[in-house]
Structure formats: structure tokens, C-alpha cells
């Protein structure tokens, strides 16, 4: 008799998400709004969390639309991809360990990169745009790929197109049962709040303060990643 069938196999509790994980992911979703507020408003109309936007910006810039930079968008895209590669390598390296330890390490890495960006923003208020874009996009690539591997439904932390589509198509208006509606709405509001706060801080206080807030939120969120309660 094969005891390794799905029915007989004991669950691997090391790989279950924490009870707090949706809360953690909502908190770092706020940071996505902050980060894109910094990059788009303060670094020349480029995104560092939303890569769909950068692909569109590349098209705009290539067509000669004013106010957009091919170089800035490419720096962001390449740095994001490098961060995502790093996330994949980290997940493989830490696969034998409990999943919460891997996720926490990734989020700590993001916080450290955002701390570097914060330091650059305060130390070099002008003239460091490409350095800031690269470091911020690197952090977002690390996070985005990590969250993708965590695969918590409706918690992508950086993009909302699928979330909004699911919210509408699964709603009572479409004859659905509104599954995870609260989580989906929370994700939308989190990015909205982050963008609002990021824009206000950039417009009134410069780039350093929203990056500092982002660093603190991600560092605190990393501490909230815990093992599943037994």
C-alpha cells in the first residue's frame, strides 16, 4: 500500500502561511503606493513597483512623448528583474527551512534596500535619480517575486488590474458570491492610501521621508511573518 498518497500524507506545517500574512501583505501594499509616488512624482515619470506602467512608458518615450525617459524606464525594469532573480535564488536556498523564515528574510532584504534608498535620498537630494530608481526597483523585484511564490489569493501587493477584475466579475452584480471581497477592497484601498501619502510627502517634504516611512513599514511587516499556529 502506498502511504504517500495525498490522503495519507501528513501536511507540512513548515510551509503554511502565517495567520498574520494577509495583514503583512496589506501593509506592504501600502508601501507600493508610496514607492511609486516617489518614483513617478519625484524621479521623472517612472514606476519602480508597477512594471506594466514602465512598459507603457517605454512605448510613450519611444514615440517621442515629452516627459518620459527610455533610460529611466529601462533602469527600473532591469533592476526589478535582477531583484526577482534574487528572490528566486533565495527561495531555492532557503527551501529546506520553514517558509516563514524565507519570507521574513526576503522582506528584511527589501527593507534594507529601501534603507539604502532612504540614505541616498537624504544625502544626495538631487542628481541621484538613477541610483534611487535602481535600488527601489531592485527592492520591488525582490518583494514581487517573493509574494508571487507565497501565492496568497488576491494579494499581489503591487498591481490591481486582476484584483479589480475579480472584484467586479465575482460581485453580486455579476451573479457571483463576492469571494474575498474584503481582501480585494483592502488591497485597492492600501495602494490608494499609499499613493496619497507618498504624493503628499513628496510634494511637501521631498523624497527621503516617504522612503523612510516605507522602510519602517516593511521592516515592521517582516517581523510579523510568523509560522502557522499549531
Quick structural overview:
The protein has 230 residues and is mostly helical.
Topology, please?
Layout: H1 21-42, H2 51-62, H3 70-93, H4 99-123, H5 129-150, H6 161-169, H7 181-205, H8 208-223
Please tell me about this protein's structure:
The structure is a single chain. With 230 residues, the chain is an all-alpha fold. The protein has one domain (18-223). The protein has helices at 21-42, 51-62, 70-93, 99-123, 129-150, 161-169, 181-205, 208-223. The chain is globular. Mean pLDDT is 89; it is low at 1-16.
- Cα-atom radius of gyration: 19 Å
Number of strands: 0
| Amount of beta strand | under 5%
Helix count, DSSP H or I runs of 4 or more residues:
8
Largest sheet: none
What is the average of the pLDDT values? 89
Shape: globular
What level of helicity do the residues show?
55-70%
Structural category: mainly alpha
Q: Please provide the ordered H/E string of secondary-structure elements.
A: HHHHHHHH
What are the main properties of this structure?
mainly alpha, single chain, 230 residues
